Amino acid sequence: METIANLFAQGGDDAYFGEPITQLEHALQCAQLAEEAGADDDTIVAAFLHDIGHLLPPDLAGGYMDGYGTVDHERLGADYLRERGFSEKVAQLIENHVNAKRYLVYKNPAYFARLSEASLKTLEFQGGPMTAAEAMLFETNPYFKGILLMRTWDEQAKIPGLPTPGIDYYMAIVERNANRVD
Description:
Blueprint: H1 2-11, H2 23-36, H3 41-49, H4 73-83, H5 88-95, H6 97-107, H7 109-114, H8 117-125, H9 132-138, H10 144-156, H11 167-177
Helix pairs in contact: 2-3, 2-10, 3-5, 3-11, 4-5, 6-9, 6-10
């Protein structure tokens, strides 16, 4: 838990790429949205840590998206947490939150129209909209509905100055869920 807290201590005050909030504010807002929706602890943890791949040391990154964060941050973050004993549900929700954006852009033109400038820019790096075949496969993921909810919270969690519980509150939930298997 100390390493996760340290990642937030080192990079949590950094701007959330192209948005008017910090990395930590975005994480806290996502977790709060999950909790307010009545999500289970695994989902709250995933919401809180979904962008942890952006906070990992540069030597773990496979490249950067022109000032919009780490390429494949979702896979890096999921693998990082798997290695630390987090559940597969947590890892899957994190690993697929970018795929959810690609899926929703494919399925729903109105969703595409609502994306922020930063989300549109990162979409280019993330493979663009899914193909029909990719979308059909994605829909078979056992966590499909939770992944889509995660994406919704991710898009909503960009409000400057929104009051949320602090990092210690969500780190306690993270600690309860670490080293637990499905």
